[in-house]
Amino acid sequence: MRAGWGGILLRGSLGESLMGRGPVGQQIVSRLPVTLELGLLAIVIGLVIALPVGIYSAIRQDTAADYAGRSVAIIGLATPNFWLGIMVMVYPAIWWGWSPSMELIPFSDDPVGNLAMFLIPSLILGTASAAAIMRLTRTMMLEVLRQDYIRTAWSKGLRERVVIIRHTIKNALIPVVTLIGLQVPILVGGSVIMENIFNLPGVGRLILIALNDRDYTMVAGANLFFAAAVMGANLVTDLIYAFLDPRVRYK
């Protein structure tokens, strides 16, 4: 049975799979934890890499560390994550006889094994997003550091840590938060590729299987889920503005 707009809006039904896989909503919910874990780990890894490197590069502008960070960011932007994922799958297996686990390890059974399984695909996705975030973080930090109120803070004799943490970072992160929100659609697309390369049974892998089988009901349901995820990320981004910018208030 196919679900019309009335079924989606009134009953929350996405219909039945055309290939006999059962209700579309149940298939998406059963695979949702894998996609969420991959996406959240990628975001965390990207921020852990990008923010400290971008801030340090701005503070130590035109030093060896700054040039190294900028070079790594350019390499990260220029390297396709799908190519890197394939290289990680192929060459370690040829050279050292090692390959990532191809069978899902539930977090409840083995938390360490589960995180180890997701670490490589999450690192590949996170590194790609970290490059763009790091460049913007550095740019905005440099712009804020040149403002008059920062010069006033330096003239008062405040320590570097106080000036950076209390007066600089919060103002510099406003455009960065916008970029992080814009990275969500990229991570969604990347999750489709990574889940297929590393055989992760998530929503991204489900949508490609449905495309190959021409299971259009499943494809429509998965696309609706991805669209809702992007809209939710944009909403969270707008809410964070109120915390970072005192001029923004929601009533």
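(the above was protein one; protein two follows)
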Amino acid sequence: MIRKATKEDLSRIAEILVFVKRIKFRPIFQDDDYSFGELQVIPVAAEYEKKLPNIWVYEDKGIVKGLIHIEDREVVELYIDYFFQGQGIGGELFEFAKKEHDVDFLWAIEKNVEAIRFYQRHGFSVTDTKKFEEGTTEYLVMLKRIGI
């Protein structure tokens, strides 16, 4: 079930974000100070409290398994707990965002080819628009919804 996130979800949201970001982004950024210093559950939960109005979670049998952060027509973040990846949860959240919020663009780390392929399978295309991920030397690429 996809539902609006609540304060009670904050620790679970933070847990998913911290774990998945360490697994997916540490190999790209090679920044242990961030991955194991700054990136901690309690501060992430506090940071995301103000973002709650724009976050939806996928819950199954009382377990939050993934989340999507939407602002206006942009998918800002999509994260699925590592243990539940490959079960279609990301696809359901992404299709929800397209259908219910008419999202039409997002940014992805250029080296995160797995995520880019996922978005392409769901009707988005890589554009020529790039920018640096803040504070890094890595590029973000913009993907736009095809046919809009």
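Reviewer note on protein two: The mean pLDDT is 92.
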